[in-house]
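TL;DR need structure tokens for one chain.
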Amino acid sequence: MSPQISQARHELLCGKYSLQLGKKTHVVGILNLTPDSFSDGGVYFKDIGKALARIEEMAQDGAHIVDIGGESTRPGSRGISADEELDRVIPVIKEASKRIDIPISIDTSKSEVAEAAIISGASLINDVTGLRSDPRMARVAAESGAGVIIMHMKGEPRTMQENPTYCDLMREILSSLRESIDIAADAGVAHDRIVVDPGIGFGKTVEHNLAILNRLSELKVLDKPIMVGVSRKSFIGSVLNKPASARLMGTVSACAIAIANGASLVRVHDTRELVDAAKIADAIKGEGDRLS
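>> reply
TL;DR here they are.
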């Protein structure tokens, strides 16, 4: 294990929270308040009691962040209005912020939704468009003191999986992420409030996704904590020939590789299992560095 990968340390500031990333992997639990997300769509849709119970369960599992989204970004999905998205997420965020004492992330590309979520108790913005779709988003992050997760996506959810191509996969992802980081910095977002995400499954083929995980350490040149979201995704299904409901072990394996190659955060549905997996990966990395 390369020490320069595993010993990377970052402090992530988000609202009232300060997360020490690098010493241990942080697990981000997913909660989709949608009727149509690819894996758990409809499970928590318009059921605030079930949603809150799941949020509390994830916190008890040891999740370090809960990421709440009200609009599906699965391949082929179409957008919804800001009003509809607000109706789905704000009541849950308001109540969840009273029940758990870990950061809540709002998964949105709309500044109006992000702003309302932060007022309601969220402290992170997870923008799959990398601050590109809404010119006001970076300013909302800067003025609120929220952290921001900047993801790479080629195209848009509705069309992103229609034959995505790259001349130089990692170089293009790095270039795009640098541009998004510059958007954040120009708006006044502090460097220690930014996380990058290569966007597994967002405008990528199976081969692209596998290559990104294999070459993830190349993103360390950005000097930002790296989040990876592989949970139950279709590339795992393609390799294993299994439906989303049977991709837990594939998810664990992909997350372990991501951690070994430099991920500081993993975004997952199965928090209990991935908290354990991350602890083992961290222990192996730590002992390997100590004795190297």
